[in-house]
Write a structure and sequence with these properties.
This protein is an alpha+beta fold. It has 8 helices and 20 strands.
Length: 368
Protein backbone atom coordinates (compact mmCIF):
# COMPACT_ATOMS: atom_id res chain seq x y z
CA UNK A 1 0.00 0.00 0.00
CA UNK A 2 1.27 3.44 -0.98
CA UNK A 3 -0.03 6.01 1.49
CA UNK A 4 -0.85 9.59 0.53
CA UNK A 5 -0.14 10.74 4.07
CA UNK A 6 -0.99 14.37 3.36
CA UNK A 7 -4.66 13.40 2.92
CA UNK A 8 -4.85 11.51 6.20
CA UNK A 9 -6.45 13.17 9.21
CA UNK A 10 -3.21 12.98 11.20
CA UNK A 11 -2.07 16.17 12.92
CA UNK A 12 0.64 17.47 15.21
CA UNK A 13 -0.36 18.46 18.75
CA UNK A 14 1.53 21.19 20.64
CA UNK A 15 1.54 21.83 24.39
CA UNK A 16 3.77 23.66 26.80
CA UNK A 17 5.47 20.34 27.52
CA UNK A 18 6.24 19.12 24.02
CA UNK A 19 4.63 17.76 20.87
CA UNK A 20 2.89 14.60 19.79
CA UNK A 21 0.55 13.19 17.17
CA UNK A 22 -3.21 12.70 17.02
CA UNK A 23 -5.64 11.54 14.35
CA UNK A 24 -9.25 12.22 13.44
CA UNK A 25 -11.99 9.84 14.53
CA UNK A 26 -14.50 12.34 13.23
CA UNK A 27 -14.01 15.83 11.80
CA UNK A 28 -13.94 17.48 15.26
CA UNK A 29 -12.42 14.78 17.46
CA UNK A 30 -8.83 13.60 17.75
CA UNK A 31 -7.57 10.60 19.65
CA UNK A 32 -4.01 10.68 21.03
CA UNK A 33 -1.98 9.56 24.04
CA UNK A 34 -2.72 10.74 27.54
CA UNK A 35 0.95 11.54 28.08
CA UNK A 36 0.95 13.86 25.04
CA UNK A 37 -1.64 16.22 26.57
CA UNK A 38 -1.18 15.48 30.28
CA UNK A 39 -1.19 18.65 32.38
CA UNK A 40 -3.05 20.70 29.75
CA UNK A 41 -6.77 21.13 29.20
CA UNK A 42 -6.21 23.28 26.09
CA UNK A 43 -3.79 22.30 23.31
CA UNK A 44 -2.87 23.52 19.83
CA UNK A 45 -3.39 21.38 16.73
CA UNK A 46 -1.50 22.34 13.57
CA UNK A 47 -3.07 22.06 10.13
CA UNK A 48 -1.21 21.39 6.88
CA UNK A 49 -0.98 25.13 6.13
CA UNK A 50 0.83 25.62 9.50
CA UNK A 51 -2.16 27.45 10.96
CA UNK A 52 -3.24 26.18 14.37
CA UNK A 53 -6.57 25.61 16.03
CA UNK A 54 -7.38 25.15 19.71
CA UNK A 55 -8.36 21.73 21.00
CA UNK A 56 -9.98 20.97 24.35
CA UNK A 57 -9.02 17.79 26.21
CA UNK A 58 -12.28 16.02 27.11
CA UNK A 59 -11.43 12.49 28.28
CA UNK A 60 -8.31 10.76 29.64
CA UNK A 61 -7.31 7.22 30.46
CA UNK A 62 -3.94 7.33 32.24
CA UNK A 63 -3.95 3.54 32.58
CA UNK A 64 -4.31 2.98 28.84
CA UNK A 65 -2.52 6.20 27.85
CA UNK A 66 -5.41 7.50 25.74
CA UNK A 67 -7.01 10.93 25.34
CA UNK A 68 -9.82 12.56 23.37
CA UNK A 69 -9.32 16.14 22.11
CA UNK A 70 -12.32 18.11 20.83
CA UNK A 71 -11.46 20.67 18.16
CA UNK A 72 -12.78 24.21 18.06
CA UNK A 73 -13.43 23.90 14.31
CA UNK A 74 -13.69 20.89 11.97
CA UNK A 75 -10.46 19.80 10.29
CA UNK A 76 -10.11 18.46 6.77
CA UNK A 77 -8.51 15.06 6.49
CA UNK A 78 -9.43 11.43 6.05
CA UNK A 79 -11.10 10.03 9.17
CA UNK A 80 -9.44 6.74 10.11
CA UNK A 81 -11.24 3.60 11.32
CA UNK A 82 -10.24 1.71 14.44
CA UNK A 83 -9.99 -2.06 13.94
CA UNK A 84 -11.86 -3.96 16.64
CA UNK A 85 -11.48 -7.56 15.51
CA UNK A 86 -8.59 -9.61 16.85
CA UNK A 87 -6.99 -10.37 13.50
CA UNK A 88 -3.36 -9.20 13.73
CA UNK A 89 -0.71 -11.80 12.96
CA UNK A 90 3.06 -11.87 13.55
CA UNK A 91 5.03 -10.59 10.56
CA UNK A 92 2.01 -8.66 9.27
CA UNK A 93 3.04 -5.37 7.66
CA UNK A 94 2.11 -2.09 9.28
CA UNK A 95 2.92 1.60 8.92
CA UNK A 96 3.35 4.23 11.62
CA UNK A 97 2.29 7.79 10.71
CA UNK A 98 3.28 10.77 12.83
CA UNK A 99 5.66 13.62 13.52
CA UNK A 100 8.90 12.04 14.80
CA UNK A 101 11.10 14.43 16.82
CA UNK A 102 9.07 17.38 15.53
CA UNK A 103 9.80 16.66 11.86
CA UNK A 104 7.09 17.02 9.19
CA UNK A 105 4.50 14.28 8.80
CA UNK A 106 6.31 11.01 8.09
CA UNK A 107 5.65 7.31 7.70
CA UNK A 108 7.78 4.35 8.79
CA UNK A 109 7.20 0.71 7.92
CA UNK A 110 7.69 -2.49 9.83
CA UNK A 111 6.01 -5.70 10.87
CA UNK A 112 4.03 -6.91 13.84
CA UNK A 113 6.51 -8.61 16.16
CA UNK A 114 3.89 -9.72 18.68
CA UNK A 115 0.19 -8.79 18.43
CA UNK A 116 -0.44 -9.58 22.11
CA UNK A 117 2.65 -8.49 24.02
CA UNK A 118 2.06 -8.30 27.78
CA UNK A 119 3.68 -5.46 29.72
CA UNK A 120 2.75 -4.58 33.31
CA UNK A 121 -0.48 -6.51 33.00
CA UNK A 122 -1.59 -4.70 29.82
CA UNK A 123 -1.68 -5.90 26.23
CA UNK A 124 0.18 -4.10 23.44
CA UNK A 125 0.93 -4.55 19.76
CA UNK A 126 4.71 -4.86 19.46
CA UNK A 127 6.41 -3.78 16.24
CA UNK A 128 9.88 -3.33 14.81
CA UNK A 129 8.83 -0.14 12.96
CA UNK A 130 10.78 2.93 14.04
CA UNK A 131 9.11 4.82 16.90
CA UNK A 132 10.51 8.17 18.02
CA UNK A 133 9.43 10.99 20.35
CA UNK A 134 6.69 12.90 18.56
CA UNK A 135 5.14 9.73 17.08
CA UNK A 136 3.18 9.20 20.29
CA UNK A 137 -0.57 9.20 19.70
CA UNK A 138 -0.30 8.50 15.98
CA UNK A 139 -1.91 5.60 14.12
CA UNK A 140 -0.41 2.23 13.29
CA UNK A 141 -2.07 1.26 10.00
CA UNK A 142 -2.54 -2.12 8.34
CA UNK A 143 -2.47 -2.66 4.59
CA UNK A 144 -6.14 -1.64 4.33
CA UNK A 145 -5.40 1.71 6.04
CA UNK A 146 -7.22 0.69 9.22
CA UNK A 147 -5.87 1.70 12.63
CA UNK A 148 -4.74 -1.51 14.30
CA UNK A 149 -3.06 0.28 17.21
CA UNK A 150 -2.13 3.71 18.56
CA UNK A 151 1.58 4.39 18.96
CA UNK A 152 2.45 4.85 22.60
CA UNK A 153 6.09 4.21 23.43
CA UNK A 154 9.36 2.45 22.76
CA UNK A 155 11.86 0.84 25.08
CA UNK A 156 14.63 3.35 25.82
CA UNK A 157 17.10 0.50 26.24
CA UNK A 158 16.41 -1.12 22.87
CA UNK A 159 16.22 -0.16 19.20
CA UNK A 160 13.50 -1.22 16.76
CA UNK A 161 11.01 -2.15 19.49
CA UNK A 162 7.85 -0.07 19.63
CA UNK A 163 4.43 -0.56 21.16
CA UNK A 164 0.87 0.39 20.34
CA UNK A 165 -2.44 0.31 22.20
CA UNK A 166 -4.71 -2.20 20.40
CA UNK A 167 -7.37 -0.62 18.19
CA UNK A 168 -10.15 -2.50 19.97
CA UNK A 169 -9.30 -0.91 23.30
CA UNK A 170 -9.09 2.53 21.69
CA UNK A 171 -12.53 1.95 20.13
CA UNK A 172 -14.01 1.11 23.54
CA UNK A 173 -12.46 4.28 24.96
CA UNK A 174 -13.95 6.37 22.15
CA UNK A 175 -17.38 4.69 22.40
CA UNK A 176 -17.43 5.63 26.08
CA UNK A 177 -16.83 9.25 25.15
CA UNK A 178 -19.88 9.19 22.87
CA UNK A 179 -22.02 8.79 26.00
CA UNK A 180 -20.07 11.33 28.09
CA UNK A 181 -21.97 14.39 29.27
CA UNK A 182 -19.26 15.82 31.54
CA UNK A 183 -17.03 18.55 30.12
CA UNK A 184 -13.97 16.61 31.27
CA UNK A 185 -13.24 13.34 33.00
CA UNK A 186 -10.57 10.79 33.85
CA UNK A 187 -11.25 7.07 33.70
CA UNK A 188 -10.82 5.03 36.86
CA UNK A 189 -7.92 2.60 36.35
CA UNK A 190 -9.85 -0.16 38.10
CA UNK A 191 -13.46 -0.05 36.86
CA UNK A 192 -13.27 2.44 33.92
CA UNK A 193 -15.97 4.69 35.40
CA UNK A 194 -15.49 8.34 34.43
CA UNK A 195 -14.23 10.43 37.34
CA UNK A 196 -15.44 14.03 37.12
CA UNK A 197 -13.47 15.45 40.06
CA UNK A 198 -10.14 14.71 41.79
CA UNK A 199 -11.64 12.41 44.43
CA UNK A 200 -9.48 10.17 46.65
CA UNK A 201 -11.69 7.09 46.25
CA UNK A 202 -13.70 5.90 43.26
CA UNK A 203 -17.42 6.15 44.03
CA UNK A 204 -18.05 3.09 41.89
CA UNK A 205 -15.44 0.51 42.91
CA UNK A 206 -13.95 2.17 46.01
CA UNK A 207 -10.34 1.91 44.88
CA UNK A 208 -7.84 4.27 46.50
CA UNK A 209 -6.80 6.73 43.79
CA UNK A 210 -4.07 8.44 45.80
CA UNK A 211 -1.26 7.01 43.69
CA UNK A 212 -2.90 8.34 40.51
CA UNK A 213 -2.65 11.95 41.78
CA UNK A 214 -5.85 12.99 40.02
CA UNK A 215 -5.32 16.67 40.87
CA UNK A 216 -2.63 16.96 38.19
CA UNK A 217 -5.23 16.12 35.54
CA UNK A 218 -8.00 18.36 36.89
CA UNK A 219 -6.05 21.34 38.21
CA UNK A 220 -3.48 23.08 36.00
CA UNK A 221 -0.02 23.28 37.52
CA UNK A 222 1.26 26.69 38.56
CA UNK A 223 3.07 28.14 35.57
CA UNK A 224 6.83 28.63 35.79
CA UNK A 225 7.66 32.35 36.14
CA UNK A 226 9.23 32.39 32.66
CA UNK A 227 6.11 30.84 31.16
CA UNK A 228 3.85 33.24 33.07
CA UNK A 229 5.95 36.22 31.89
CA UNK A 230 6.04 35.26 28.21
CA UNK A 231 2.44 34.09 27.96
CA UNK A 232 1.22 37.15 29.85
CA UNK A 233 3.04 39.36 27.36
CA UNK A 234 1.65 37.41 24.40
CA UNK A 235 -1.88 37.73 25.73
CA UNK A 236 -1.51 41.52 26.03
CA UNK A 237 -0.19 41.56 22.46
CA UNK A 238 -3.39 39.76 21.32
CA UNK A 239 -1.54 36.48 20.66
CA UNK A 240 -3.19 33.31 21.98
CA UNK A 241 -0.44 31.62 24.05
CA UNK A 242 -2.07 28.19 23.65
CA UNK A 243 -1.64 28.41 19.89
CA UNK A 244 1.92 29.69 20.26
CA UNK A 245 3.24 26.90 22.50
CA UNK A 246 5.95 24.82 20.91
CA UNK A 247 7.23 22.75 23.81
CA UNK A 248 8.77 23.52 27.17
CA UNK A 249 9.55 27.27 27.45
CA UNK A 250 9.38 27.51 23.67
CA UNK A 251 6.89 29.42 21.52
CA UNK A 252 6.44 30.12 17.81
CA UNK A 253 3.79 31.92 15.78
CA UNK A 254 3.38 34.48 13.00
CA UNK A 255 2.81 38.18 13.36
CA UNK A 256 1.06 38.77 10.07
CA UNK A 257 3.65 37.49 7.61
CA UNK A 258 6.64 37.45 9.98
CA UNK A 259 7.58 34.30 11.94
CA UNK A 260 8.26 34.86 15.65
CA UNK A 261 10.30 32.45 17.77
CA UNK A 262 10.74 32.68 21.56
CA UNK A 263 12.93 30.47 23.73
CA UNK A 264 15.30 30.38 26.69
CA UNK A 265 18.78 30.13 25.23
CA UNK A 266 20.44 29.70 28.63
CA UNK A 267 19.81 30.31 32.32
CA UNK A 268 20.20 34.08 31.87
CA UNK A 269 18.16 35.18 28.84
CA UNK A 270 14.79 34.88 27.13
CA UNK A 271 15.25 35.37 23.39
CA UNK A 272 12.76 36.80 20.90
CA UNK A 273 13.71 36.48 17.24
CA UNK A 274 12.04 36.96 13.87
CA UNK A 275 13.66 35.78 10.60
CA UNK A 276 12.52 38.65 8.40
CA UNK A 277 14.04 38.28 4.93
CA UNK A 278 16.91 36.85 2.87
CA UNK A 279 19.61 39.21 1.66
CA UNK A 280 19.26 40.41 -1.89
CA UNK A 281 22.11 41.09 -4.34
CA UNK A 282 22.22 44.86 -4.20
CA UNK A 283 21.65 47.92 -1.96
CA UNK A 284 23.98 46.47 0.70
CA UNK A 285 25.25 49.87 1.82
CA UNK A 286 21.79 51.31 2.27
CA UNK A 287 20.54 48.12 3.88
CA UNK A 288 23.28 47.91 6.50
CA UNK A 289 23.01 51.59 7.34
CA UNK A 290 19.33 50.96 7.97
CA UNK A 291 19.97 47.84 10.06
CA UNK A 292 22.66 49.53 12.20
CA UNK A 293 20.60 52.65 12.86
CA UNK A 294 19.88 53.55 16.49
CA UNK A 295 16.23 54.02 15.58
CA UNK A 296 15.59 50.30 16.08
CA UNK A 297 16.70 50.16 19.74
CA UNK A 298 16.10 48.18 21.92
CA UNK A 299 15.86 45.73 19.02
CA UNK A 300 18.86 44.57 17.00
CA UNK A 301 19.50 42.71 13.77
CA UNK A 302 21.80 39.83 12.92
CA UNK A 303 22.46 37.55 9.95
CA UNK A 304 22.03 33.75 10.04
CA UNK A 305 22.31 31.66 6.86
CA UNK A 306 21.90 34.83 4.80
CA UNK A 307 18.64 35.69 6.62
CA UNK A 308 18.20 39.03 8.40
CA UNK A 309 16.72 38.48 11.88
CA UNK A 310 15.17 40.97 14.28
CA UNK A 311 16.05 40.24 17.91
CA UNK A 312 15.09 41.22 21.44
CA UNK A 313 16.75 39.76 24.53
CA UNK A 314 15.29 39.97 28.04
CA UNK A 315 17.56 39.21 30.98
CA UNK A 316 16.22 36.63 33.40
CA UNK A 317 16.58 39.03 36.33
CA UNK A 318 13.94 41.23 34.68
CA UNK A 319 11.61 38.27 34.29
CA UNK A 320 11.68 37.65 38.04
CA UNK A 321 11.14 41.32 38.95
CA UNK A 322 7.40 41.71 38.49
CA UNK A 323 7.60 45.48 38.99
CA UNK A 324 9.44 45.80 35.66
CA UNK A 325 7.04 43.63 33.67
CA UNK A 326 4.90 46.40 32.19
CA UNK A 327 7.97 47.96 30.55
CA UNK A 328 9.08 44.70 28.96
CA UNK A 329 5.56 43.65 28.02
CA UNK A 330 5.34 46.84 25.94
CA UNK A 331 8.70 46.08 24.34
CA UNK A 332 7.51 42.60 23.42
CA UNK A 333 4.30 43.98 21.91
CA UNK A 334 6.34 46.50 19.92
CA UNK A 335 8.70 43.73 18.79
CA UNK A 336 5.80 41.62 17.49
CA UNK A 337 4.31 44.57 15.60
CA UNK A 338 7.71 45.68 14.24
CA UNK A 339 8.47 42.24 12.81
CA UNK A 340 5.31 42.33 10.70
CA UNK A 341 6.22 45.79 9.43
CA UNK A 342 9.94 45.34 8.86
CA UNK A 343 9.84 42.27 6.62
CA UNK A 344 7.84 44.37 4.15
CA UNK A 345 10.38 47.20 4.40
CA UNK A 346 13.36 44.90 3.74
CA UNK A 347 11.68 43.31 0.74
CA UNK A 348 10.13 46.41 -0.82
CA UNK A 349 12.87 48.96 -0.17
CA UNK A 350 16.12 47.03 0.08
CA UNK A 351 15.73 44.22 -2.47
CA UNK A 352 15.51 41.33 0.01
CA UNK A 353 13.37 38.24 -0.57
CA UNK A 354 11.00 36.50 1.87
CA UNK A 355 12.52 34.33 4.59
CA UNK A 356 11.75 30.57 4.39
CA UNK A 357 9.01 30.70 7.07
CA UNK A 358 7.36 33.91 5.87
CA UNK A 359 3.59 33.66 5.41
CA UNK A 360 3.39 35.01 1.89
CA UNK A 361 -0.40 35.35 2.02
CA UNK A 362 -0.05 38.09 4.63
CA UNK A 363 3.14 39.69 3.36
CA UNK A 364 1.60 42.79 1.82
CA UNK A 365 -0.84 43.32 4.67
CA UNK A 366 1.82 44.74 6.99
CA UNK A 367 2.32 48.44 7.45
CA UNK A 368 5.17 49.71 5.27
Amino acid sequence: MVLDIEKLGVFQIFTGGGTGTGFLIDDRLLITNCHVVEGYRMVAVEKRDRQRVVGTVRRLSPKRDLAIVELGVPLEGEVLSLVTEDALQPKQMLQIVGFPVGLPLSVTEGVVSNPKQQLDGLEYVQTDAAVNPGNSGGPMLDEEKNVVAITTCKLSSADMIGFGIPGGEAKQFFDGFREQTAVFGVMCPSCDVLLESPTRYCDSCGIDLGSLDLARYFEPAVAHPIVAFVEGALTKAAVDPVLARHGEQNWSFHSGSAPIKIWCCCSEHVCFSSPLAKLGKQHFGELFRFLLSDEHAPFSFDLADNVVRLNLTVHMSDVFQSGEHDHFVKQISDFIASADRLDNVLIDKYGCSPAPDTQLTFLKEGTH
